[in-house]
Write a structure and sequence with these properties.
This protein is of the alpha+beta class. The protein folds into two domains: 71 residues, no CATH class; 120 residues, no CATH class. The protein has four helices and eight strands. The mean pLDDT is 90.
Length: 208
């Protein structure tokens, strides 16, 4: 039975990618720098921060709550686009839906001062640290978005006989999965090359 689709073929080995719909590796359960406080009537999103949205009348009140309880050094609204699947962003989706029929604010992503100081081992937040925080948070939002859109993959490397030489699952985002598939293939090629060299060396020793 065919497994996924071929992404690399080299020296008799083939690397495959397959979308893994059964994977439950939610990246919000990882050790993230950011926190996501979200509220939606149908979806369970973001982090479990013990937040009760019924206590607030507006997103402005929620933002004030975050400032009062977490002293954020970074905070941004989060927006959800819900149409034949869901996708999340810090920038909104006006370019796709200018009237906002299928998207709107779903919460905030933020980094507390305490977490930032601990992460970078500093006593104050400089502009350089702010830039680093923005990059990290952007990547964490992108990873979560890939997860929500179902871009979770497993990788398999097979030889010409179809025997599985290596496999792994839980790669979130096509780019990461593609890079990892190539690395896995190259690793197996190196292993085979080392085994062949060892066999030739042993034959030479026996001949002597």
């Amino acid at each position: 039975m065919a497994y996924g689709h071929i992404v690399f073929q080299r020296n008799g080995l083939t690397a495959y990618l397959q979308q893994d719909e059964s994977d439950t590796n939610n990246p919000r359960e990882w050790s993230n720098l950011s926190k996501m406080l979200c509220s939606h009537r149908r979806y369970s999103l973001g982090d479990d921060l013990g937040f009760n949205s019924s206590q607030f009348d507006s997103w402005n009140e929620v933002e004030q709550y975050i400032h009062a309880n977490y002293d954020p050094v970074f905070i941004s609204p989060l927006f959800l686009f819900d149409h034949s699947g869901i996708t999340i962003s810090m920038n909104g989706f006006g370019q796709f839906d200018p009237h906002g029929f299928d998207w709107g604010q779903v919460g905030f992503v933020f980094v507390s001062r305490a977490d930032a100081l601990k992460e970078y081992g500093v006593k104050r937040i400089t502009a350089d640290i702010q830039d680093k925080i923005l990059k990290v948070v952007s990547n964490e939002v992108k990873t979560y978005d890939n997860y929500l859109r179902g871009e979770v993959y497993s990788i398999r490397v097979e030889d010409e006989a179809g025997d599985v030489l290596d496999s792994c699952a839980g790669y979130i985002g096509y780019e990461w999965a593609l890079e990892s598939a190539e690395e896995m293939l190259e690793h197996r090629l190196q292993v085979l090359e080392n085994e062949q060299w060892k066999a030739l060396t042993n034959l030479g020793a026996e001949a002597e």
